[in-house]
């Protein structure tokens, strides 16, 4: 049976803004401003969705350096696949995520030892 975190993810994924955020950040990290434009929503609305997605480990933040030397956060989707099966106890939810940048670095570092 799915734990509460997995059920929360299923609920989160039902939001139209979340769908747009995940699709837009799947291939290329995006800023909240770009996501706000894509969703035609106020940035505060997008920040709330981004926070929920980050807490659910479906989105990760990266710092991006601008040519003028300033930096800002961009977000990249970690969600790869969600599988939901009906079981006697309720839903069986499996979530597959992309490897995070930190995990990738650790794996590469461990490979050099």
Write a structural description.
InterPro entries: ArsR-like_HTH, WH-like_DNA-bd_sf, WH_DNA-bd_sf. It comes from Natronococcus occultus SP4. This is Transcriptional regulator. It holds the Pfam family HTH_20. The chain has 113 residues and is α+β, with helices and mostly antiparallel strands. It has one domain (4-112): Winged helix-like DNA-binding domain superfamily/Winged helix DNA-binding domain (Arc Repressor Mutant, subunit A). 49% of the residues lie in helices and 27% in strands. It contains 5 helices and 4 strands, in the order H-H-H-H-E-E-E-E-H. The protein has helices spanning 4-13, 16-27, 32-39, 43-55, 101-112, and strands spanning 59-65, 71-77, 79-87, 90-97. Strands 1-2 form a two-stranded antiparallel sheet. Helix 3 packs across helix 4. The longest helix is centred in the middle third of the chain and has 13 residues, at 43-55. It is flat, with a radius of gyration of 16 Å. The mean pLDDT is 86.
Looking at this protein, list some descriptive labels.
single chain, alpha+beta, flat, two-stranded antiparallel ribbon, 113 residues
């Amino acid at each position: 049976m799915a734990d509460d975190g997995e059920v929360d993810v299923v609920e989160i994924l039902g939001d139209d803004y979340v769908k747009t955020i995940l699709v837009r950040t799947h291939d290329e990290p995006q800023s909240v401003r770009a996501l706000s434009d894509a969703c035609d929503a106020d940035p505060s609305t997008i920040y709330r969705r981004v926070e929920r997605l980050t807490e659910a480990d479906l989105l990760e933040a990266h710092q991006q350096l601008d040519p003028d030397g300033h930096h800002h956060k961009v977000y990249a989707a970690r969600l790869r696949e969600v599988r939901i099966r009906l079981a006697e106890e309720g839903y069986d939810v499996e979530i597959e995520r992309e490897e995070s940048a930190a995990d990738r670095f650790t794996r590469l570092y461990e490979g050099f030892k």
